[in-house]
Input
Amino acid sequence: MGGTEDRNTRGTRAVHAALPEPLRDAVDEFARYLASVRNRSAHTVRAYVADLVSLLDHAHRMGCAEVAELSLDTVRSWLAKQRTMGAARTSLARRAAAARTFSAWAHRGGLLPTDVAATLASPRPQRTLPTVLRADQAALLVEAPTRGATISARPAADAHPADAQPAGTNPADAQPADAHPGADAGSAMEMADGAEAGDRVAEAVLLRDRALLELLYGTGVRVSEACGIDLADVDHGRRVVRVWGKGGRERSVPYGLPAQRALDEWLRRGRSVLAVPDSRDALLLGARGGRLNPTTARRIVAAYAQAAGLPRISPHGLRHSAATHLLEGGADLRAVQELLGHSSLASTQVYTHVSVDRLRTAYRQAHPRA
Output
């Protein structure tokens, strides 16, 4: 996946470099606007810039040398071309949104005489119901690190240097050929110390994993939000954690007793084992001591789900599960919207469909006249 992203980035840069200077300058200014004024994430900026470069390349091939020459017909023909090339409806919707955002920005800045894409319609994306776990399955997942579930292939990015050892070697054979016979006792002591250190790291990683899983399910935060939490963001007395969501929006999310116990254990017995000077104030650490990476967190969740014999699930699936279980337990839709950090209630309403679908299934299974 990383290789694909690298190829896509290189391709965008190559096309960007081939554009006429006025179009290149517009792309660069638009990227700065998204990052500094709109406070969009780096991922969103990359996606919108890639879409804009594709649009302006298409416009340039149609004879457009300046932004002022961009027209609604050009934008529509670009989207039509994307559709014929097999772009998904969700991708087309995002690209249409990028075109509208750029058009409005260019019009306000005097680059376009009119907002040509203001009336551009977006393809309606097919909305699929999110994958969710049952409450008992979610409990099994978050408790997997303390139930003895083992991850057979922990990602290399989360491997600790103390665990590294050449394949096929025996620790007893690690002594150099010219070692003095009298050094045997010292070597044995060093190996014992190394094994003890490795055990401490392994225990710390398990405590970290439990804290991560409890936090994701107990709060419903996004994986990037969980990995971005600092020590000062956790209010242990009130059991509330502060997170920074999309667009830099701050919100406070409560968490329950199981998450509190997992966090307390991680901070008391685990974090100090993994911490290094570069750890700074990060709450969750990788095995090398840096801030836990969202990609590693996704692999951890997937690996524990597999080890526990559960359906394939991601951190976002745990977020879906938390929201669904809140609504099924009687939580208000507006409250769930606030907890999840959704800017629009429409984003939260998808979970009502999940709950209704489960209710319909239960009705069909239990009611004699179903």
Remarks:
- The longest strand covers residues 240-244.
- The chain has a mean pLDDT of 81.
- Residues 184-219 form the longest helix (36 residues).
